[in-house]
Amino acid sequence: MPDATKTAPAPEDAEAPLVGPSVDVKAEKARSLWGDAWLELRRNWYFIISAALIVLLLVIAIVPSLFTSASPTVGDLAHHFLGKPELSKVGSPEWLGYDGQGRSVYARVIYGTRASVIVGISVTLLVTVFGGLIGMVAGYFGGWVDALLSGFTNIFLGLPFLLGAMVVLQAFTERTVLVVIFALAFLGWTQIARVTRGAVITVKQADFVQAARALGAGTNRILFRHILPNVLAPVIVVATISLGVYISAEATLSYLGLGLASPTVSWGMDISGGASQIRVAQHILIYPSIMLSITVLAFIMLGEAVRNALDPKTR
Amino acid sequence: MTTIDKTATVPSARSGDDHVGPLLEVRDLHVEFHTRDGVVKAVNGVNYSVDAGETLAVLGESGSGKSVTAQAIMGILDMPPGRIPQGEILFRGQDMLKMSAEERRNIRGRKIAMIFQDALSSLNPVLTVGYQLGEMFRVHQGLSKKDAKAKAIGLMDQVKIPAAAARISDYPHQFSGGMRQRIMIAMALALEPDLIIADEPTTALDVTVQAQVMDLLAELQREYNMGLILITHDLGVVADVADKIAVMYAGRIVETSPVHEIYKAPAHPYTKGLLASIPRLDQKGQELFAIKGLPPNLLHVPSGCAFNPRCTMAQDICRSDIPPLLPVTGTDGTELVGRHSACHFWKETLHG
Ligand SMILES: Nc1ncnc2c1ncn2[C@@H]1O[C@H](COP(=O)(O)OP(=O)(O)OP(=O)(O)O)[C@@H](O)[C@H]1O
Ligand code: SF4
Ligand SMILES: [Mg+2]
């Protein structure tokens, strides 16, 4: 092996082309964690499909009238139950049949999107921000701060999620979307807090955090620039999975008669209503359930894709 | 090859420093860890100093407290469980242990920087090396993203990473071990600190790359006239680059010496044992010497000289009295400059 002289670039990195060093800054676009993640996501079919579905759901939630002219709340008793789905008439009021009060199931599925999606996304955002912050502070500072926050978290964790939400909801006379969001978020943040705390404790001990400190990084920089990007992956996965859980929880609460109430329309209310009539008319139950499943799946797929894209090693 | 004009940016402190004495001086430093099993006395009175432009090699077996001392100097010890019950760490004559957290943070990276053993785990896996290098300039000097990037590329050139501009947006795992360590060196070097602490910078690398990285470090140190504390347990590496050596055992300095003299005539039985355990070409085929026994349990450091259970020369006094680190003299009684030993029988060891 020829002797590596002190001025020549060391030849150990065989895979690197030995281009002369240059300082052409503009030659390459600046890359960042999110920039690179985005490049990766654009090539991922799971992401494209889930993102398209989610965009569609959002459009439905925002302007449901674009998709149907029928009213979700006004029914014609003439259609009572007997209106079986007419699957060839895509998009018409009778497409997915009618429910017990003669309301178009299709219209109800479309109009129910808003409440369900708002509940799912809002609760997820709330618990992720709140739980994530609590978990990060507890995990990073440790000691008595951790003891205090973990104790606080465990008190909430001790309350059964649905039972707790029911108790909270009992306190309100009016069960609007906001109230349901509050009840679910109030009890739901503990899981994210625990996941974040655990991830922060692991990452905090990583050598690169000590190295960053040794090179003069302050608390904020270490917490938000070095630790946060490394704990995002598990948090995103848990958050997107729980988004589906919250939509389902809203459905369960409605089923128990404690969730949203008329005139609000939600998949949860229809699933609960449909369940009691399952022997007579399955379509009342099936279609909102399918929408719920698709929504949950879309968000889980999105979370998985984002998580992979955030890990440079899987790129 | 160098793309940053160094002459313009040499900190004034280096030339117009009114402080006399060593750049860094550690005095009687103690560090202990309060654990469930008891108090781990990791550092028990370390004394060493390093000057600008000088390289101090700190040697010693695993667990002798080399890294903990370095962490105490950097101010990155985990406290709790760590505690510094006594000692001083003087940087340019000022005791860093008495400074505020903010003052200490301003020294880190700017005045004193550190290079770690495992460069892969010392770099953030989700940030590009360009971002991490540029961060030094953005945070400490408030440079714009673009300027920081240009400087980052300059640094990468300086530590001889081929095609720096093309690789600036790569992630740490995309580099080989040697290249990663160069990046760590570049980060430590970014703000032209006065002192660099390198904690086993080449241990994780294979032998040929080790030499290249050591050469680079030594070259940059000369160029910037930095002090360098090189922590290692490889006596072979030390001979080429170090000016002086401090040998650690059980959290204490047991011998200090200018580099070449210690190889010729060690003044402490532990150093003697270390030297005898280096493989040598002229002894090929012979069984390699190893110091008998294990390093002491730091929960229960032996009384007297901590080395006594393993020392072939140990006498009763070694089991009762801690030998202080004292200057040693030649056979004719003249003081040997820079040489100290913490052994009751240094004379017998050195001259016997
Ligand atoms: N956070 C800690 N808690 C408890 N004990 C610790 C902690 N950090 C270090 N120690 C103890 O301090 C002692 C000295 O460790 P140190 O890392 O300084 O050794 P070292 O000389 O650097 O060894 P090596 O050559 O293996 O790196 C060890 O016995 C170790 O167990
Ligand atoms: S003081 Fe005694 S035990 Fe310690 S190194 Fe010297 S001779 Fe050995
Ligand atoms: Mg060490």
UniProtKB/TrEMBL annotation, chain A:
Extract the Pfam families matched here: BPD_transp_1, OppC_N
What domain of life? Bacteria
Keywords on this record? Cell membrane, Membrane, Transmembrane, Transmembrane helix, Transport
Query: Record's Gene3D superfamilies?
Result: MetI-like
Where does the record place the ABC transmembrane type-1 domain?
113-303
Q: Where the protein is mainly located, per its record?
A: membrane
Where do the TM regions start and end?
A: 45-67, 117-141, 161-187, 227-247, 253-272, 284-303
Locations listed in the record: Cell membrane
Give the CDD domains listed for this entry. TM_PBP2
Q: How does it sit in the membrane?
A: Multi-pass membrane protein
Give the similarity note. Answer: Belongs to the binding-protein-dependent transport system permease family.
Protein's recorded name: ABC transporter permease
Organism annotation: Streptomyces salyersiae
From TrEMBL, chain B:
User: Where do the TM regions start and end?
Assistant: none
Q: Write down the SUPFAM superfamilies for this protein, in alphabetical order.
A: P-loop containing nucleoside triphosphate hydrolases (SSF52540)
Main location, first listed in the record = membrane
Does rRNA-binding show up as a keyword for this record? no
Keyword ATP-binding on this protein? yes
**Annotated Pfam families:** ABC_tran, oligo_HPY
Q: Which domain of life is it from?
A: Bacteria
Cell compartment(s), UniProt: Cell membrane
Q: What UniProt keywords are attached to this protein's entry?
A: ATP-binding, Cell membrane, Membrane, Nucleotide-binding, Transport
The entry lists its GO molecular-function terms as: ATP binding
Classification via InterPro entries: AAA+_ATPase, ABC_Ni/Peptide_Import, ABC_transporter-like_ATP-bd, ABC_transporter-like_CS, Oligopep_ABC_C, P-loop_NTPase
Topology versus the membrane: Peripheral membrane protein
- Report the residue ranges that make up the ABC transporter domain in this protein: 24-275
Instruction: Tell me which PROSITE patterns the record gives.
Output: ABC_TRANSPORTER_1, ABC_TRANSPORTER_2
Q: Which family does it belong to?
A: Belongs to the ABC transporter superfamily.
Q: Name the chain's protein.
A: ABC transporter ATP-binding protein
